[in-house]
Design goal:
Strand content: under 5%
Number of strands: 6
Number of helices: 27
Radius of gyration: 33 Å
Largest sheet: 2 strands, antiparallel
Oligomer: single chain
GO cellular component, one term: NatC complex
Keywords: Cytoplasm
Main location: cytoplasm
Protein name: N-alpha-acetyltransferase 35, NatC auxiliary subunit
Helix content: 55-70%
Shape: globular
Structural class: mainly alpha
Organism: Rhynchospora tenuis
Distance between the termini: 66 Å
Length: 732
Amino acid sequence: MATNHSGVQGGGDVYNSSPPHFIPPGDGCVWADASSLIDAACKDLQEGELVHGENFSLFAAMSALEIMDPKMDSGIENGYCTVEEAIEAGAAPVPLSFDRTVDLQRTIDVMDHLFSCEATWHKGSILAQTVFSCIYLLRLERTSPHPILNAYCRIMHATCNEVIKSISNARTHEEEDLFVMAYGLPLKDEDNERLHAFLHSVEETISRKLRACKAQPSSKKKQVEDVEPLQTNPELEEGYCRALLCRLRFRKYFDLTLRHIRNWQGKGQSMAHKYILTCLAELENMRKNEMFLKSQPHISCKDSPETSTTASGCKAIGFDATLNAKSLSPAPPRAAKIVGWHDALAYFEKLLHDFDILCSFSFDPILESILQFVVQFQKSKPDLVARAYLQLLLIQSGKLYGREFFHEVIARVLLLPDVAKDKAFHQNEFVVQLGQLLIVLLKILCTNSAWQRRKLGKTLQDWSVVSIQLELAYNREFGEAQNSSADEGLHAKVSKRLFLWAQEQTYWIASRFLQLGFELDLYSPWEYCMVYWYMSVVFVQLLEKIQLRSIANIDTTRQKGKKKRDNHAKDHSRDAIFSPSCLLLQCHVYLCEGLAMVLAALRNEGSAFKMPNTFNSEHERFIQHFELLLRAHLPEQISFSSFHESILHARVSDVVRCDYFKEIQRITTSLKGSFAEAPEKLLEIRQIEQVAERNRIALNVINQLGASDPSLRVSFELTHHPYFAVVVVKRS
């Protein structure tokens, strides 16, 4: 026996210690029989003890494998060795029973378990150990004599293919690409039209049987449709027909939804919406049919409702997760816990609702609206499949919606749509770089929160470098001319707007990076002071860049000559500075400044919220949280020293006098009318109002009692807004 890390752990199975008949010689290898040592160790070791060589370390233990542990040893003989062996042993019979009623019941159980396996796969498990743990799927041709099972397995097969293609194209898969790895599974394409025609014929056959059993023949007249029933018990016929129909129809329309939601040309969007509503209706029919299936006698015992993967509660036959274990990558097999049937229902309902949100998207060509839509969509915590289809909706063949090149998108952002036709513009080095950065940004925003934050931090440096280069190039070419000339040329106008927009976008990414830290619970309450302080600095810079760009857009369109024109331009500049979006961002600035100063005052006047230095100092935590921003120089000349100096003299009385929170309430009152047509903005305003009102009251209470009062208990809770905390004051 030769291993990389010599270790034998107590509590495991005892091996057959007889040496192999022949051990092939290796170059420079000296083989020794360790059977007696292993036998002695197995007899003497207690649970948790380990015999190891001198070169063994805890670091080496990280890559060690425990043999004969089914969670780690993929070569362990557990269950059937091959699919053929499982079939010969009767693990997946066709028909599922010679009793037609039992056969129907077992068929429905197979459908339900595959439904649960699919939800488990979507949540990040391996296809080979979830959906393709079904022996009927692994040997699809065996189901041909059973039309219902064959139709369901074939459409499931097609749906898996469609999902894998979409996830692969979007490249949003997680778990080290395991989601799209097929491990040599039989995933060949089938003609979609022929498949749906066959599925439709099976569905029509069951529908005729349902109509026949519902018909009420008068006296001895022959029924309108002379159709053989599905099974032998007339009282159960209608229930089984309905159970089969809703499952087959869900599979058909879910497959159609996936295919149409990728194709937005023509009627693709409206058809996808129609199919989504049908799928939701069929899921509700499946839920209604549950009691009928539970009330039937079963051969096998029932599982608990929480863990059962079928509506009936019976264990489905024809599944073995260990069959594909040896075909997986050379790593320990993952134990895939299949989600319950009720959880699978909830998952698909959530997925379909997320798809419906995508169908409601208006294909707004304005970049700001697109970014707001993606951020708003991510608030509903969509799973991997929904996020992948969101990306496919936004970016197709390197174009926005598959229609517009990104230099056209940038030209629209600059309010210069005609410049997009200029060959020199879309071939400009900076425009090409910004177009590529925009594509990367949209893809990043479609990933999960953890990946999104990490990748946003990395792309910040690229945006920062490009924006600095743009500003330097503008100052170098037009720095003197811009002061002496009343009118800017087109090239100067484009260059100025381009670098101002790049700076604004850079600070928007920085703000998103900081906000995601709250979603991921990366900040401790005693770190809120530095976080809100840094957020306030970033928001101030973002607000400044938005206002500068708005003024530049107005100034460059101003004509010389008439005084009325100049006054009109000044009015527009004032409107740009105090636009509703700028005022809402100003509320964010006040909230961050107010919360940072409240926390700083509590630290300075009392013992609350002082940073514990058990493992690292406050300076080290500052670097850990904001290192990626500091590398990108966002903002310039920001350091831990500037943070420390700004909060050093904070007092509760000073915060009360500044009255950040009352100023917020004044602004939000004037904003409600401006966002009357934007429900998500109104919700944001209401949340900000609630946070400001509660914090103003809490601050007054702290000021009256004194921050040094030992009976005062102050905490910060994210109960009314995902990023801005509410101050909670209690007395012990």
